Model the fold of this input.
Amino acid sequence: MTVIRYLNSDNADLNANAIIDIIKDKNTKKIVFFATYTNRGHQPDSVLPLMAAIAEYEIPSIELIHIVFDGKFLTAVCKPRYSEVKSVLDQAESSGKAYFSNERVLFTSEFEAENAASTLSSMSKIEELNQSTRKKYFSLLCNVSEADYP
Done:
């Protein structure tokens, strides 16, 4: 199995569109979303937590690839960025192949891609992302519910 990392853009729209394209792709078998911890040691950061994900993508007759989406990928803690997260979650929810971890994860962007994939894949509490569980995942990304978002 090969592991690759999506090279994040500074443009949140590009990041959101990249993961939406992966979700829509028929070769994507599964995608698991994560929320990072809300701080990095003693350094407060106003954009935390961040969304992270790992997708299982199958190249027919070749192999299964894990694609890691981490780093300063997407955040829902400010209004301008919420729209990108909402678009991703709308697509994920309707895909039938999206899941999420209900435990916060480490910041894996400084790990080698294989170690990042291993760390994210080791999360044991995974739930299907659907209409009834979406609010549970969103609560890990933001302290305001989607329904109450201004």
